[in-house]
Amino acid sequence: MASSRTILIAGAGIGGLSAALMLARRGFRAVVAEQAEQLTEAGAGLQLSPNATRILQSLGLAERLAETAVIPAGLSVRSARSGAEIVHMPIGAAMEFRYGAPYWMLHRADLQAALLEAVGDEPDIDLKLGTRLDDFAVHPNGITVQLRDSRGVTEDRASALIGADGLWSTTRARLGDASKPEFRERTAWRTLIPAEAVPQDMRTPVMRLWLGPHAHLVQYPVRAGRQINVVAIVRDRWNAQGWSAPGERAVLLRHFARWAKAARDLIETPETWLKWALFDRGDGGFPGRGPVTLIGDAAHPMLPFLAQGAAMAIEDAAILARCLAAPGSDLADGMRRYEAIRQPRARKVQREARANSRTYHMAGTAALARNLAMRMMGGERLRARYDWLYDWRPD
Ligand SMILES: Cc1cc2nc3c(=O)[nH]c(=O)nc-3n(C[C@H](O)[C@H](O)[C@H](O)COP(=O)(O)OP(=O)(O)OC[C@H]3O[C@@H](n4cnc5c(N)ncnc54)[C@H](O)[C@@H]3O)c2cc1C
Fold first, then answer.
1. pLDDT digits (tens, 9 = 90+) for 35-48
2. Residue 369 phi, psi (nearest 5)
3. What pairs with residue 137 in β-bridges?
4. CATH number of 182-280+360-387
5. How far apart are the C-alpha atoms of 384 and 124, rounded to whole Å?
6. What SS3 state is found at 258?
7. pTM for the complete prediction?
8. Any idea where the domains of the chain sit in the sequence?
9. What is the CATH topology of the domain spanning 6-70+108-181+281-357?
10. Is there an atom of ligand 1 within 6 Å of 15 CB?
């Protein structure tokens, strides 16, 4: 495998596939080792804001993704108890005009399929499914990686290693970081409902965010409007690893017993729910060393209260490829520069997401004050608070 331009990427999630594409476009050869035998339809709906969609556009994926992406007209924030709208934030054309790229609501599998298709078209990317990164060693001329597949363990050489291996990153552990992701006492429940199973007003391209005590509910159409993605996040102590544990509808309904009928009806509609526990990390930073670094959830897992985990993985990939391709610097230097650029932004987004986790789940008078503040601020100003996030550009 070894060549001075071969980079091994552990993990073919959104971050790993994006990094492979960006590196190949800058003249590197990328080998992506993914432990899963197949990249199946894991995950749920995903919101992608302009800071990420502009990068996907630059990769030439806009046309492919536009086939299934839904552009929300706006975000409707609603009160859980009454169902009434607290504030409406315009998105759609207003956001595209302001930030120069669209806001998309997608199924994660559609994004992964588009990235995979582009990866398949790149002769300089080698995707090895069913191949797990077990370990690595750094030496003066690059790294040796230990890869495990169905035939056993093999050793391979590369110039550098990118750990895009998610929340429970092996690369991070092998870099010597013994800390663990922190459980934030919340679980996310998700389901997809055929559009025809929900009332007409819920099929419109609007993202609805219902805020209630210790819980919130997000609902929006995906897959060109054919399915409705619903995510319910509740306070909970269940904290197993993984994305797809079955969740009992009756248990979920108990969290929403006193919510508006429209919200309860939505939760009652699907037969099956999957749930996963929510973790992030403190502001620990990137523990990169030599020609090894981390991207995406491996580097900075975050709570989904700002809908930015995938977006940050895509941003990471864009900046890392630029830093590695910069003339006159070696790969390790490029990786340190990448980490220095990304750390402050990733930390800020992690902190904002954590702050939203408290604000969204307020109860009693605190919730009343929050609703009043949102109403007074209005949708335009609410959105403008996030200019720093959405108006970001890799250059
Ligand atoms: C409820 C919820 C809603 C969300 N909503 C949004 C949203 O609207 N917008 C948004 O931007 N983000 C959202 N996110 C976050 C987003 O899904 C993640 O941040 C993003 O998928 C991280 O991508 P990644 O490539 O870093 O990691 P992952 O997608 O976890 O990919 C890691 C890959 O590495 C593989 N792997 C692991 N270990 C190894 C190994 N040792 N060797 C080889 N392969 C390995 C795994 O099999 C996996 O394929 C949400 C998250 C949750 C929980």
1. 999 887 666 899 99
2. -65, -40
3. 144
4. 3.30.9.30
5. 41
6. coil
7. 0.96
8. 6-70+108-181+281-357, 182-280+360-387
9. FAD/NAD(P)-binding domain (3.50.50)
10. yes
